[in-house]
Design brief:
It is a single chain. This protein has a seven-stranded mixed beta sheet with strand order 3-2-1-4-5-7-6, with helices on both faces. A hairpin with a 3-residue loop joins strand 6 and strand 7. Helix 2 packs across helix 3. It is of the alpha/beta class. It is built from eight helices and seven strands; from the N terminus they run ααβαβαββαβαααββ.
Length: about 240
């Protein structure tokens, strides 16, 4: 009988450039990969976790200013905008990505859903709109960065936002197995089949990101584990 994948952590990060980050990637394959990531996010409950943090950060009936960093195809931003419309929350949402293709994809997705987040091209972290922001969040992005880059990223978010939320993968054997299976069950995208396992191997462990967030100057830092093999960092920044 084969051994069951362990939820224990994989000891060392291995960061390898992902196919998705290649500017020469075929546009058709890029779009297919974005659609696959949208399915993964939907099944992982990403928008729900971010939405709960937005509700906690909201102040009475005042509009809440939120920015997503590295939005990809915009599926999370569109889902949040739709929830805000249904609930009556006055949400001003900006979604950024360094890829013009991804931003165009997000705009099309939003148009189909009948919502209007502001999608803009912006390089994280130093090319981001400065706000001020009530909450800034990023999903499935931190693992792309070297440790020093990741700490700088968190420092910048803490400087421009009142509240910081980061959601990413856990570096575990179970997470690696899930990424491999999902790449074959949820999509035919060869990009996702390669990048999924690479992302898990490059991910930060919850205790690593918690320590990094504290070094970055974030306050009230909390890291919660969530299904499936994810963690969510929440913290206070120094923004207005």
């Amino acid at each position: 009988m084969a051994a069951r994948p362990s939820t224990a952590g994989i000891a060392l990060r291995v960061v390898v450039p992902e196919v998705m980050d290649d500017p020469e990637l075929d546009p058709v394959e890029h779009e297919r990969a974005l659609r696959a990531l949208a399915r993964v996010n939907r099944l992982s409950g990403t928008a729900g976790r971010i939405w709960r943090e937005i509700l906690r950060a909201a102040r009475d009936d005042a509009p809440i200013r939120v920015m997503e960093v590295a939005c990809g195809g915009g599926d999370v931003a569109v889902a949040l905008a739709a929830r805000a419309r249904s609930s009556g929350l006055r949400l001003s949402l900006t979604a950024t990505d360094r890829s013009e293709r991804a931003v165009r994809s997000g705009r099309k997705r939003a148009e189909r859903a009948g919502v209007a987040p502001d999608f803009v091209v912006g390089e994280a972290p130093d090319g981001l709109p400065q706000g001020p922001w009530d909450l800034v969040y990023a999903s499935l992005f931190l693992h792309h960065l070297a440790e020093a880059e990741a700490q700088h990223f968190l420092t910048v978010l803490g400087r421009i936002a009142r509240r910081v939320v980061v959601d990413d993968l856990r570096r575990t054997s179970m997470g690696l197995a899930l990424a491999t299976v999902a790449g074959h069950v949820l999509t035919r995208s060869p990009v996702v089949r390669v990048d999924g396992p690479r992302s898990v191997r490059a991910a930060f462990a919850p205790e690593e990101v918690e320590a990094m967030a504290r070094r970055a100057g974030l306050r009230s830092v909390r890291v919660r584990r969530s299904w499936p093999q994810r963690w969510t960092l929440t913290a206070d920044g120094s923004g207005p």
